[in-house]
Design a protein that fits this description.
- With 210 residues, the protein is of the alpha/beta class.
- The protein has 2 domains: 1-33, no CATH class; 34-206, Carbonic anhydrase (Beta-carbonic Anhydrase, Chain A).
- It contains 9 helices and 5 strands.
- A 5-stranded mixed β-sheet has the order 2-1-3-4-5.
- Strand 4 (176-182) and strand 5 form a beta hairpin.
- The chain starts with a helix and ends in a 19-residue tail after the last strand.
- The mean pLDDT is 95.
- The structure holds cobalt (II) ion.
- Cobalt (II) ion is lined by residues 43, 45, 68, 99, 102-104.
Length: 210
């Protein structure tokens, strides 16, 4: 137990040394402040670390993660991260990145009882219900989960576009929303091309006259 947690501290010492070896000013530069171009909303899954899978450095991506990369319009945590990233850091892109083999998506497809967690997974069940005509035709459960993973990302991008924060920003400047799915089995990101660039991309009822 002790050895397992020591591994993290030891790893940190090696990280710090190697960064300073490559660039003695590395941490000094980072400590001046951050100006990331991207906000990443991803799954909490330990196999999808934002910086590692995009080969980026500290300071390049502002990150929010939760189970199954959901954008829930009453989630104060997500809305605060979004507002800070868009308004103060002035990120140019917001990326929702789901991943194949997502435990949250698989759990939402079934009827097992998980307790409190089911209230969160309910959001994915709503995505399933909205697209059930397409999903029900897919016989393989794995393939159906893959498709639900993609549809979930598309719906979360739409949810982003419906927020007051994104719509207020669109009145002032461009902000690009992206939907991606990461493959745990090959390490590759698939761009679902669900870019939402303006309020014309969302259904009329959700458009706000800000
Ligand atoms: Co996941």
């Amino acid at each position: 137990m002790e050895i397992s947690y020591r591994k993290l501290i030891d790893g940190n010492r090696r990280f710090s040394m190697s960064k300073k070896f490559d660039d003695p000013e590395y941490f000094k530069k980072l400590s001046l402040g951050q100006k990331p171009d991207y906000l990443w909303i991803g799954c909490s899954d330990s196999r999808v670390p934002a910086n590692e899978v995009t080969n980026t450095e500290s300071g390049e991506i502002f990150v929010h993660r939760n189970i199954a990369n959901l954008v829930v319009h009453t989630d104060m945590n997500l809305l605060s991260v979004l507002e800070y990233a868009v308004k103060y850091l002035e990120v140019k892109h917001v990326i929702i990145c789901g991943h194949y083999g997502c435990g949250g998506v698989k759990a939402a497809m079934g009827n097992d009882f998980h307790g409190f967690l089911d209230n969160w997974l309910r959001n994915i069940k709503d995505v399933y219900h909205k697209h059930h005509l397409e999903l029900d035709t897919i016989e393989s459960l794995d393939k159906r989960a893959d498709r639900l993973t993609e549809l979930n990302v598309v719906e979360q991008v739409r949810n982003l576009a419906k927020t007051t924060i994104v719509q207020e920003t669109w009145k002032k400047r461009p902000l690009h929303l992206h939907g991606w799915v990461y493959g745990i089995n090959n390490g590759l990101i698939k761009d679902l091309s669900v870019i939402h660039d303006g309020t014309e991309d969302i259904e009329a009822i959700y458009r706000l006259n800000v």
